[in-house]
From TrEMBL:
Oligomer status and interactors: Homodimer.
Keyword Glycosyltransferase among UniProt keywords: yes
Biological process according to GO: 'de novo' UMP biosynthetic process; pyrimidine nucleobase biosynthetic process
SUPFAM superfamilies linked to this entry: PRTase-like
Name of this protein: Orotate phosphoribosyltransferase
Cofactor section: Mg(2+)
EC number: 2.4.2.10
Amino acids binding 5-phospho-alpha-D-ribose 1-diphosphate: R110, K111, K114, H116, E137, D138, V139, V140, T141, T142, G143, K144, S145
Keywords: Glycosyltransferase, Magnesium, Pyrimidine biosynthesis, Transferase
Job description of the protein: Catalyzes the transfer of a ribosyl phosphate group from 5-phosphoribose 1-diphosphate to orotate, leading to the formation of orotidine monophosphate (OMP).
Length: 200
């Protein structure tokens, strides 16, 4: 980790550049692994990224919350994501937003409707039908997971502004979102992670 960012107070005041540098270090150190892996899509890969190793660390959550909050459009009414990978990310952004006097609620999208009660797909505060939502994701590969969240939100009457992920594997996700006329940005590309991994 960046030696200048070892305390919560420094993480609360650090620049975006320092936060990004520290997050890159955390992801490569704890989340990035090389080997022989089978992805959720069924494809094989020579590397795997488990961002929960970072998003569920206190300092990782704080950094991610700050970076993504700074990237949100000013009209954002809520952040949302498909369970499970996005759960700690949307929660981190929501908590940091409250600390920044810009409270933004978090929504969690179920993969299957709840089997009891309201049988809802979306968990979280009820919002006006016209609410503008940003979908968050940890790692984008084909893009289908975040797109599922987008479809659930749109079916509920919400307007999805864009998708923001921690890492883009550059394996079709960006193109899928473009085909659906969805804005997309990632904090890091796989090339940035691999370049940093080989230089350290």
């Amino acid at each position: 980790m960046n030696s200048n960012l070892t305390s919560s107070s420094s993480l609360l005041t650090a620049s975006n550049e320092d936060l990004r540098s520290t997050l890159l270090d955390l992801i490569v150190k704890y989340a990035y692994r090389e080997g022989d892996f089978v992805l959720s899509s069924g494809a094989r890969s020579s590397y795997y990224i488990n961002c929960k190793e970072v998003t569920l660390r206190a300092e990782g959550a704080l950094i991610i919350g700050r970076l993504i909050l700074n990237a949100l459009p000013s009209t954002t009414d809520a952040v949302a994501g498909l369970t499970l990978g996005a759960d700690p990310i949307v929660s981190a952004v929501s908590v940091v937003s409250a600390l920044s006097d810009r409270p933004i609620p978090a929504l969690i999208i179920r993969k299957k409707a709840k089997g009891h009660g309201t049988q809802a797909y979306i968990e979280g505060p009820s919002l006006p039908k016209s609410a503008e939502v940003v979908v968050l994701e940890d790692v984008v590969t084909t893009g289908k997971s975040a797109l599922q969240a987008v479809e659930r939100l749109q079916a509920a009457g919400y307007k999805v502004l864009q998708i923001i992920s921690l890492v883009d594997r550059n394996q079709g996700g960006r193109e899928l979102y473009q085909s659906q006329r969805l804005k997309f940005q990632a904090l890091f590309t796989i090339e940035e992670l691999q370049g940093y991994a080989t230089s350290t």
